[in-house]
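Hi support team,

I submitted a single chain yesterday and got back a structure, but I'm not sure I'm reading the C-alpha cell output correctly. Could someone confirm the output below corresponds to the sequence I sent? I've pasted both exactly as they appear in my results page.

Thanks,
R.
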Amino acid sequence: MALKLDMSKAYAKVEWAFLRDMMLRMGFESSWVDFIMQCVSTASYSISINGERGSLFKPERSLRQGDSLSPYLFLICSGGLSSLMRLAKEEGLVRGAKYAEEDLKLLIYSL
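Hi R., thanks for writing in. Yes, this is the structure output for that exact sequence:
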C-alpha cells in the first residue's frame, strides 16, 4: 500500500474541533485557544452571480489559504495526525509492509 497525501487540499479538511483539541493538548491557554478559534470560525462567504450577491454562508471547517495564521495552525494539526499514526502503530493497529527496492523505484516513477 502506498499513501499519497494531497497537501494542497488538506487545508479544506481541517476540522475545527480537532484543531481546538490539539491546541489544548499542547498546553495553549484556553483563552488563547478561544481567541484563535474565533478568528478561524468567523469567516463567511457569499457567491456573486450576474453581479448579485447571494446569501452569506459559513463554513463548518477548513483553514483559509493565504491567511498568515493558517500555516501554523495546519502544522499543529499535522503534528496531531502524526502522533495518532505513531500511536496506532505502537498499539498494533497498523503495520508496515516489506517491499523490494525495485518495487519502490517503480512506484516513485509512476507517481
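A quick pointer for reading it: DSSP finds five helices and two strands in the chain. Let us know if anything else looks off.

Best,
Support desk
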